[in-house]
Amino acid sequence: MTSKFDRHRRLRSSAAMRSLVRENHVRVEDLIYPLFVVEGQNIKEQIPSMPGVYHFSLDRLAEEMKEIAAAGIKSVLMFGVPEHKDACGSEAYNDQAITQQAIRQIKEAYPEMIVIADTCLCQYTDHGHCGVLHEGQVVNDETLKLLAQTAVSQAKAGADIIAPSNMMDGFVIAIREGLDEAGFAHIPIMSYAVKYASAFYGPFRDAAHSTPQYGDRKSYQMDPANAREGLLEAESDIKEGADFLIVKPGLAFMDMVLRLRENFHVPIVAYNVSAEYSMVKAAAANGWIDEEQIVMETLVGFKRAGADLIITYHAKDVAKWLAR
């Protein structure tokens, strides 16, 4: 009998056949692993809300970097958690601060490792907001000056990429001009272009000790209901000199990954954020899900939506799975 329907299953008949026609792949080179460094000695403390993710002091950072490098991971995203915090986040742009020390240490030991510096003030300010406050409100333009100083300090320490996450208006051009004037025209900017005011950041704030002491970040991070606004933000960042665009959170806003991919021709980065990670870990610990399959489906979803790179706390596990 002549078939009157399409036989799509022909290309699904075996594992080899499925592998042959697979459209999207996750590679270890696509993964960016976040790191949290703290002041002190002999510290390796698991973050309670993020199983498998730790705070490291500088003297314990080497053992973590050895594991990361052995897994084949090529890029890390640095977050520093200082002991001293003040109203203007001065440790963010102190050349001898914890983040800058960690960057120098990693680049000396692993010169080929791509070190990406998160550039924000929230974990350095005593109020937990991403900029300077005046009468309880974040002051945009005064904050830009400090962000540019922070980016230059991080570049001087050896950062390969500056990743500003503050969502101030004009933050990309302020940092671009600051880097260029300081002799760092070759350093690219990975902009948190589409960053929503999201509840998915809860565990991260435990990790970075960056919970606002009062109020919230809704006046500068985006409304989760808005998509067109994200395209405006991304377009502004491209015009101002961004070399990469990040969507954060990634999983809940995968439509924005696709929208950016369809509209811009720079590398697109999906941030698989802390709560997305912790929910998987909690469900897996209870035996409710197959962790490996869930994680790999999620990361393939990012790739299918158009992400070139993925920031994820699962990176070390994924690297091991891929190697196997």
Automatic annotation (TrEMBL):
Zn(2+) binds at C120, C122, C130. The keyword Signal does not apply. GO terms for molecular function: porphobilinogen synthase activity; zinc ion binding. It comes from the Bacteria. InterPro entries: ALAD, Aldolase_TIM. It catalyses: 2 5-aminolevulinate = porphobilinogen + 2 H2O + H(+). Pathway: Porphyrin-containing compound metabolism; protoporphyrin-IX biosynthesis; coproporphyrinogen-III from 5-aminolevulinate: step 1/4. Its EC number is 4.2.1.24. Mg(2+) binds at E233. The active site is at K195 (schiff-base intermediate with substrate), K248 (schiff-base intermediate with substrate). Its cofactor is Zn(2+). 5-aminolevulinate 2 binds at S274, Y313. Keywords: Heme biosynthesis, Lyase, Magnesium, Metal-binding, Porphyrin biosynthesis, Zinc. One of its GO terms (biological process) is protoporphyrinogen IX biosynthetic process. Signal peptide: none annotated. 5-aminolevulinate 1 binds at R205, R217. One of its GO terms (cellular component) is cytosol. The keyword Magnesium applies. Belongs to the ALAD family. Catalyzes an early step in the biosynthesis of tetrapyrroles. Binds two molecules of 5-aminolevulinate per subunit, each at a distinct site, and catalyzes their condensation to form porphobilinogen. Homooctamer. This is Delta-aminolevulinic acid dehydratase.
